[in-house]
């Protein structure tokens, strides 16, 4: 992972060199990260859409072959082949994203190690909006609250997508649980971590929310379909 840390650290350092403001550099870096992952996200979204379209047929097979698991597997594979659907299509983008996200997170967690030298990082102005120092936790705890709220907002449409596309009850229940657990977890973690990392997470959540709205309008996931 050190290679990724160094790579993303050099990008954040370049951005800072251009804008000369650490807070603004984090915002621009967040936008860069989202754009970099956009092709993978689109592919994953397309795979999810294809699976949602197949859900009614899959559920029909599950009812028809409820007592014959082997036959169910065979017929499900035939259904995938008929529609040229690869069930791994949604997993592969997620696996690709994971090390990238870890790399981005590591850079934001330790900028003095991967972006600047400790000596340089100690001298730069790290104030942003109401925050006096982005390298420490927010004393007003606004950042963790916003991180939790924007995490919830970025996940707000997941339940509707699953339900509207024929997702099963178990998947819907899991999605609803994650919509509660994830914001609480992010808020808790952000409570003590550097506020710069929380700022990065907030911008990512806002961009994710906007991205979801654009994809829903342009591709689908209309409720009731």
Distinctive features:
0% strand; disordered C terminus; mainly alpha; 225 residues; 10 helices
In short:
By secondary structure, the chain is an all-alpha fold. It is built from ten helices and no strands.
Structure description:
This protein is mainly α. The protein has one domain. The protein has ten helices and no strands. It is elongated. The C terminus is likely disordered.
H/E series: HHHHHHHHHH
How many strands, what sense, and barrel or not for the largest sheet? none
Distance between the termini: 42 Å
Q: Give the count of helical stretches.
A: 10
| Spans of at least 5 consecutive residues with low confidence | 160-167, 220-225
Category by helix and strand content:
mainly alpha
Mean pLDDT: 80
* Tertiary shape: elongated
Approximate strand percentage: under 5%
Helix content: over 70%
Q: Rounded to an integer, what's the Rg over CA atoms?
A: 21 Å
Oligomer: single chain
Tell how many strands the DSSP assignment holds: 0
Topology, element by element:
Blueprint: H1 2-19, H2 22-64, H3 69-82, H4 91-109, H5 111-114, H6 118-123, H7 142-154, H8 158-164, H9 169-190, H10 195-218
Helix pairs in contact: 1-2, 1-4, 2-3, 2-4, 2-10, 7-9, 7-10, 8-9
């Amino acid at each position: 992972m050190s290679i990724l840390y160094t790579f993303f650290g050099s990008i954040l350092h370049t951005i800072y060199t251009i804008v000369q403001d650490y807070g603004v550099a984090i915002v621009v870096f967040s936008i860069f990260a989202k754009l970099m992952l956009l092709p993978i996200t689109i592919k994953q979204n397309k795979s999810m859409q294809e699976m949602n379209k197949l859900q009614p047929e899959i559920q029909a097979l599950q009812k028809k072959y409820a007592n014959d698991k082997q036959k169910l597997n065979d017929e499900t594979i035939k259904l995938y082949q008929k529609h040229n659907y690869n069930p791994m299509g949604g997993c592969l983008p997620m696996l690709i994203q994971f090390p990238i996200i870890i790399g981005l997170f590591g850079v934001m967690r330790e900028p003095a190690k991967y972006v600047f030298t400790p000596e340089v990082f100690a001298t730069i102005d790290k104030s942003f909006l109401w925050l006096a120092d982005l390298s420490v936790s927010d004393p007003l705890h606004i950042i963790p609250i916003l991180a939790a709220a924007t995490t919830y907002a970025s996940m707000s449409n997941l339940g509707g997508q699953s339900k509207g596309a024929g997702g099963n009850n178990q998947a819907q229940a899991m999605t609803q649980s994650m919509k509660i657990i994830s914001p609480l977890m992010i808020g808790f973690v952000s409570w003590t971590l550097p506020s710069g990392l929380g700022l990065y997470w907030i911008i990512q959540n806002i961009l994710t929310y906007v991205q979801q709205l654009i994809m829903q309008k342009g591709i689908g996931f209309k409720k009731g379909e």
